Amino acid sequence: MGYFAKFAVPHPSPAIYASMIAIVVTVFLIIFGLTYFKKWIYLWSEWITTVDHKKIGTMYLIAALLMLFRGGVDALMMRAQTAVPDNKLLDSQHYNEVFSAHGVIMIIFMAMPYIMAFMNIVVPLQIGARDVAFPRLNAVSFWLFFMGAMLFNISFVIGGSPDAGWTSYFPLADNEFSPSVGTNYYMIAIQIAGIGTLMTGINFITTILRMRAPGMTLMRMPMFTWSAFVTSIIIIFAFPVLTIALLMGTMDRLFETKFFAMTDGGMDMLWANLFWVWGHPEVYILILPAFGIFSEIIPTFSRRNIYGYKSMVISMVVISLYSFFVWTHHFFTMGQTAYVNSIFSITTMVIAVPTGIKIFNWLLTMWKGRIRFTVPMLYSIAFIPLFTIGGVTGVMLAMSAADYQYHNTMFLVAHFHNVIIPGVAFAVLAGSTYYWPKIFGFMLNERIGKWAFWFLTIGFSLAFFPMYITGLDGQARRMYTYSEASGYGLLNFVSFIGAAFMAISFVLIVYTIYYSIRHSPRHVGGDPWDARSLEWATHNPVPEYNFAIIPQVDSREPFWDAKYKRYELFKGDYKKIHMPNNSGVPFIMSALFFVFGFALVFSMWILAVISLIGIFICMAHRSFEIDHGHYISVEEIKETEVKMGGNHK
Amino acid sequence: MRELFPAKQVWGFVLSLALTAAALLVYFFNMSRATGMTIFIVTAFIQAFVQLVVFMHARETDDSKSIFATLYYAIFIALITVFGTLLCMIWGWKY
Lengths: 649, 95
What we know:
By secondary structure, chain A is an all-alpha fold. Chain A has helices at about 15-35, 40-50, 55-80, 90-125, 135-155, 180-210, 225-255, 270-300, 310-320, 340-365, 375-400, 400-405, 410-440, 445-470, 490-520, 560-565, 585-600, 605-625, 635-645, and strands spanning about 575-580, 630.
């Protein structure tokens, strides 16, 4: 039994044992269900081996919702623990593990895949393409992300969770202070998911530059495609830094190198530096596509074209450049001189300018528009004031002298939740509602959706605005409890109530999905929202080949012009369509990555070498494989178009 | 005949050999660390440029403009990251 002792959880609790049982039961139920309903072959041939951008996007969406649940439960546990002074719900070690998991999961395994989901589903449709440039690579990206997420998620039942925060600063994250394998999981799981993200970046740059429909120049691309393009550029410049930092961190932990050690010429603060060289652009990787989603929703429901298209594009490009200039503001108190801090204070304040331009553009888009208050529009309207408050407190934090007061307090926690929740979370929830008919062919129920929206917005305000006050009063972040004499009790309890509201909102969102699957009418047509861009020019749900005929673009809003200005979008006749073949190799290779990562976490070298050989065999297989894809015949296209209620030809 | 002879490639090859030889001088001659590193960095960047232009055909296609734009963007970001790190980790370090 000695061999298996290393897999034990170092700091167990009844909750962890309960989770173990729950995981075993769930896995058993899934296997049983798949066998009972004879869905194994369906699952393999339709989903696991798919290279279709829409299906991959859907899988990203489902994975992101699952991770939202996990990260949300972590958040609730934290708020419950700090709801009253001297609470004994979680001890300090568990609290450390919970906030570390919450941060990593929400940023890397919830927000990122949610953004990737929209990039996958929407971008090829918006530019009138049949798929992304490298469909097989896209499947590899998804499965690497998925396996990374799963590797991270099993940490709390096998070997112990990471407990050094989502930033995992050295020297705390080194073997000396974090002896459990938890931080190994952090380093390796994020590495695997990060490789997938890097591939997505390359894939989408190529797709957007090479596969636009005829006539769609760069300055005619829809806003969301622009945001995906700029985001992809940031990804390929920022993620290599994370890759190297994680590699050095892994070497420090597994092979006793001294990159981030405090002795032998190492430099512990270099981790913080490299982490934020990636980490700050990462914030914009999340927020720019979110801006893109809002820029699609606001014009649609205001019945006006986007105000200041050019300035929107320019501010995004400027943000992509500036996002690399500001990282030091995450550690103003680390020990640089006031001179260095001043430089980064100024760059940080400057980056608020392009963001401000975008805020004004959205406001002016709505100005004199005929606004329809649908669920996606409600999220977009609430986003503007709430995000602006977050932005303004961000400028407060940017003042390095004042930052010595705010640093590491709940004020900071309030600030970044105030930008990420109304910014990213509202955007992806609005986007899910907006694009739901595109993906699944039916609408989400508006009435329940509005309830969910109000619970989320009120819950968010209750949960995070009190933190500004406790933060200014000196409550430090990541403290698992506080004394009654500190006087933080009341406001923290308000925060807990807010968190409960947000939990109710999540339940309502899940219920909307369930209710709409049961009751929503099908056959909503291709354009249920009266939208403006190309993705709505095809059927709902989208056929495998996206567009029977590649659209011809002559303006910024070709679909709107086709509807109201009698512009002809689809010229010519059906031709046979060339499509890529499915493949199981991306899944198998990523599963081997999972085994490889797991072996590294526990330093099981033989297993690591075997799985690494397997990964190389998969790559070699791809190099020598002859796969010319397949054709969809004209008859088949006609048949599909008629079945979908096609209105042309 | 002149059109058929790949003069550019031959010159590129000779140049890259010469640059490699120049970098090797650092090993064979006893010079200070600063001089050695300067030779390394200068020859390495010229070498990379020669490879890009002569052998990777960076100038010959229609999209050469975007190739160079990406290149300059990448160099710019790299310089900002490296010098920014030096600024806050070494030059501007108080303790």
